Amino acid sequence: MNSYCSMPSVLGDITLQANHQGLLGAWFEVHTTQPEQLGKHDPEHTVLREARRQLEQYFLGQRRVFDLPLAAKGTPFQQQVWQALTTIPYGHVWSYQQLAQAIGNPKAVRAVGLANGKNPLSVIVPCHRVIGKNGKLTGYAGGVDRKQQLLRLEGYLEQ
């Protein structure tokens, strides 16, 4: 059974979803990857409560790495890309090309971009840290403005 809750953040409300295995999703209200069915509203679910706590710390600048059980659903290729995203350090960015190289498939730049865009764990699995090879802030399911704000929060972009 899936459970969910919402929380406010400096970038807008975030909906969190989890099951007994871990966190399934974290979406801003405009995210294009949010499922229609979220499950039972349960803000006291252990994983959801911990995810809220860690996200609050992140937005206050007190957390750089998330330590949560993750259970996002995706293809094996998507899972591989999402795992690689978790290795991009706080305050740094990679190009889609670098991400493709990190998974050992340097010709899969477009496929990596598509998998990155399907990441259901916004902020926690930091797809916002991937930018175009030319340095442009391209695509973000939560909106490029949020991507820019997240990179500012992490100190990559100037305030």
Automatic annotation (TrEMBL):
<dbReference type="Pfam" id="PF01035">
    <property type="entry name" value="DNA_binding_1"/>
</dbReference>
<comment type="function">
    <text>Involved in the cellular defense against the biological effects of O6-methylguanine (O6-MeG) and O4-methylthymine (O4-MeT) in DNA. Repairs the methylated nucleobase in DNA by stoichiometrically transferring the methyl group to a cysteine residue in the enzyme. This is a suicide reaction: the enzyme is irreversibly inactivated.</text>
</comment>
<keyword id="KW-0963">Cytoplasm</keyword>
<dbReference type="InterPro" id="IPR036631">
    <property type="entry name" value="MGMT_N_sf"/>
</dbReference>
<dbReference type="GO" id="GO:0032259">
    <property type="term" value="P:methylation"/>
</dbReference>
<feature type="active site" description="Nucleophile; methyl group acceptor">
    <location>
        <position position="127"/>
    </location>
</feature>
<keyword id="KW-0489">Methyltransferase</keyword>
<comment type="similarity">
    <text>Belongs to the MGMT family.</text>
</comment>
<dbReference type="InterPro" id="IPR001497">
    <property type="entry name" value="MethylDNA_cys_MeTrfase_AS"/>
</dbReference>
<protein>
    <recommendedName>
        <fullName>Methylated-DNA--protein-cysteine methyltransferase</fullName>
        <ecNumber>2.1.1.63</ecNumber>
    </recommendedName>
</protein>
<dbReference type="Pfam" id="PF02870">
    <property type="entry name" value="Methyltransf_1N"/>
</dbReference>
<dbReference type="InterPro" id="IPR008332">
    <property type="entry name" value="MethylG_MeTrfase_N"/>
</dbReference>
<dbReference type="InterPro" id="IPR036388">
    <property type="entry name" value="WH-like_DNA-bd_sf"/>
</dbReference>
<dbReference type="InterPro" id="IPR014048">
    <property type="entry name" value="MethylDNA_cys_MeTrfase_DNA-bd"/>
</dbReference>
<dbReference type="InterPro" id="IPR036217">
    <property type="entry name" value="MethylDNA_cys_MeTrfase_DNAb"/>
</dbReference>
<keyword id="KW-0227">DNA damage</keyword>
<keyword id="KW-0234">DNA repair</keyword>
<dbReference type="InterPro" id="IPR023546">
    <property type="entry name" value="MGMT"/>
</dbReference>
<feature type="domain" description="Methylguanine DNA methyltransferase ribonuclease-like">
    <location>
        <begin position="4"/>
        <end position="71"/>
    </location>
</feature>
<dbReference type="GO" id="GO:0003908">
    <property type="term" value="F:methylated-DNA-[protein]-cysteine S-methyltransferase activity"/>
</dbReference>
<keyword id="KW-0808">Transferase</keyword>
<feature type="domain" description="Methylated-DNA-[protein]-cysteine S-methyltransferase DNA binding">
    <location>
        <begin position="76"/>
        <end position="155"/>
    </location>
</feature>
